[in-house]
Amino acid sequence: MAEIGSFSLLLALALSVYSFVAGIIALAFQNRTSLQPAGATAGRGALPASLEESPLITTIRQASERIGETARRAGIATFAAVLLASMVLVICAFRDDFSIAYILHHSNRALPGPYKFAVLWSGQEGSLLFWSLLLAAYGFVLRLRYKTDPRLFAYASVVLSGVQIFFLLLLNFAAHPFAIVQGTIPADGNGLNPLLQYPEMVIHPPMLYLGYVGFTIPFAFALGALIMKYPGEKWIHITRRWTMVTWAFLTCGVFLGAHWAYSVLGWGGYWGWDPVENASLMPWLTGTAFLHSVMMQEKRGMLKMWNMWLVFATFWLAILGTFLTRSGIISSVHAFAQSSIGDWFAWFLAITLIVFLFFFFKNKSHLRSEHKLESLISRESSFLFNNLLFVLLCFTVLWGTWFPKISELVQGNKVTVGAPFYNRVAIPVALLLLILTAVGPLLAWRKTSLESLKRNFMWPTVGAIVVVVFLMSTPQSWGSAFGLKPWRDISYFYSLMAIALSVLVTLTVASEFYRGGRVISKHTGQGMFASMVQLTHRNTRRYGGYIVHFGVVVVIIGFAGAAFNQDKEMEMKNGDKMTIGPYTLICRSSTEDDNPDHYSQWAILDVFKAGKQIDTMTPERRFYHASQQTSTMPDIRSTLNEDLYVVFEGLNQDNGHPILKAHLNALVMWIWMGVWIMLIGTVLALIPNAPAPVRVPARARMTHPHAEPAVTGD
Amino acid sequence: MNNRQMGRIKCGDSRPRLSAGRAAVSLWARMFRRKAFQALLLSAAVFTLLGAGDPATRFTELGHQLMCICGCNQILLECNHVGCPASDGMRNELMASLTRGDSDSLVEQGFVQKYGPTVLAAPTTKGFDRAAYIMPFAALFLGFGLIALVIRSWKNRPAPAIADGLTPIPGPELEQFRDQARKETDL
């Protein structure tokens, strides 16, 4: 089996190289033999009209088209070869083929089936193979859809092949997943890292990788459009869906990671500002900025250079994240074992930067903005500030991630850059961003009058103030987020601000739906809800986007709850009580179990609230036989108000009593709900618009018989 | 000539004489600015002093400013390893320091001397460490500056040429058409 896998990888590399080289040759010849290539400005070597029809030129052009077609097919075949290699690795995991070093180190006989499948992305070599597979799959779809714009797709295909070659070189020569074990083959494997033996871990890495890898597609189109000086904004339209789908995957991946950390690591939190977590956040931030600024280019022909940089930065940061994880240059609890592949990534990052800079400076004159800014109070300027804040947040995270290394270089000693740093620096910027999220949708393109802004903004502001007063004046016994006194602690102040601004955003979003729905309702006589549904269907991108914004504020409210978290640790023998917030935990008993995969200890706790039993919780601690590692399995009781999160920390060695830690984490459920809303909004935004009825006055119809329907705005 | 002298001469020489009404407005504006500045200082002081509470609060706050040094990369009070070789001892040390009445900075200094600078969960505000905090805000101001430049260049860009035979529509009428277009298309 290992031979088949190795051969498939070599074949995939050969096919990728062919796709890359033949693609370049075909494009070069097409540029030189065409007078004016379709959809692009002519290259310097373009022919005069007199030569355009000569038989030799026609033959060369036909040959180059055929070469281009073989390059496209080679790209498609690459997918088949990488898929075969991946399937071989998974089959080897299911067959417990410990002659393959990767399977030996990441699987064992007793490992449950789904985790054997997840072995594919559980280690260095397998995850690189998985990355390559996803890239090939994206390339497969792209190459099948080439008829949308053959030349642009051909350029994008060449860029994709270039990236694919890098990963296949890595797989064939630096991190081979089919390396054979030397000497005696052990009877059983070392097992999967226990922290990864959790259902979400089967989904989290694929989602994250789909996000990371997916940003290669907009980058490939952007670089292709830059190289060929693609006229107009069609490439933006083509990549819009790719970008949104990719962004949704990355969002999903980031939050699944947070949920996994929360549910498995047992420290009661979901985000630790670890370099690897930061690595996933950075491309998300620039990708989100790109999703916003791209509208400026579509609608107004502005920010063309900036968008090029954003899309490049997003791709580059995704690779940088992988470099951070794999090189061992930054210490992280998540990092893979240190290896030489960090150097490969460093070179790849350098090469992509040089290639991008070369074409950017060569063709930047093509990227000039087409329109002028008419007013500072406009959608355009709000996008500028929005982009500034997103990029600044990204820079802050990047700076914080690298600062220990920089400090070591400058002053000779490392420092830690943890949550307190990010809370001090990133929270104020995030709050500014939230203000823009509230104001932005109320601003029109080109110009907004101050009067209309005041009119639209007044009621949401009043609503936010009412909520602030309400939260400050209610008794604390109502729940974690009530009875807030912002002067007691800076974290309370930030929380109150975050909740107030979230309410502001929610009300501006609701007012947008209400205003639009009222107009439709007036014209059609439909009910308000039906009108709002129709409104959303007429401009899915805009209203889907608003729903994403709503999801974001729900997530922010969840984050704001962190200020009210409590925890308590106690050694509990049978019958002992622990009180935390409104809950009382009584230890009924503690017990243990053993199976071929792991040995476990757990406590049985009855949970009381207001004197009434409401639940029984069983936090657990496992010891995995194969990997000889311990893992906690916290028990979490979630409500809208707070999570009761109980961890079995272990047994007291002297008396055998369990040591339990209970966390009362406020509003955490809002985070997971918000993510679902964000995803629903994204899916809505991907649905094509319903055609809006166009009412044309009789006179206008007579004078402009070929008038086109107005384009709906975003 | 020092800067203060230069500033005074500039102000005295270049400021035009004000009418009584404008002077009142100017006086009011100055008072408002002074009050706003005072309010800003006060709020800064309030938020700087926040957290200077009882020992339990200080224990929680300082415990979240320190790292466990066992290698788990976790905040001291969030380290959840039973039998962790470091965190229990560190927590006891922290409590002992607070019981002695040590100030926050003295507690942190003690930990740094014993465990090295990586024991602090965030860079200090001294020496090169200050760069950690300065850079993001410097980038923010630089970004604002760049945006100002971009906006200025965009505003100064000549309006797109209009085809022969057409005349530009005057401002109010154009606004009216825009409003109408928004109403009819922006749904």
Features:
heterodimer; A: 714 residues; alpha+beta; 6-stranded antiparallel sheet; 4-stranded antiparallel sheet; 10 strands; 61% helix; disordered C terminus; B: 187 residues; mainly alpha; Helicase, Ruva Protein, domain 3; 0% strand; disordered N terminus
Write a compact overview of the structure shown:
The complex is a heterodimer of chains A (714) and B (187). By secondary structure, chain A is α+β, with helices and mostly antiparallel strands.
Describe the structure.
The complex is a heterodimer of chains A (714) and B (187). Chain A is 61% helix and 10% strand. Chain A is of the alpha+beta class. Among the domains of chain A are: 191 residues, no CATH class; 181 residues, no CATH class; 106 residues, no CATH class. In chain A, the strands form two sheets. In chain A, strands 2, 3, 4, 5, 6 and 7 form a six-stranded antiparallel β-sheet that branches. In chain A, strands 1-10-9-8 form a four-stranded antiparallel β-sheet, with no helix packed on it. In chain A, helix 9 packs across helix 12, helix 11 runs antiparallel to helix 14 and helix 12 runs antiparallel to helix 13. The longest helix of chain A is centred in the N-terminal third of the chain and has 40 residues. The radius of gyration of chain A is 28 Å and the shape is globular. Chain B is built from seven helices and no strands. By secondary structure, chain B is mainly alpha-helical. Classes of the chains: A alpha+beta (714), B mainly alpha (187). At the A-B interface, helix 14, helix 15, helix 17 and strand 9 of A face helix 6 and helix 7 of B.
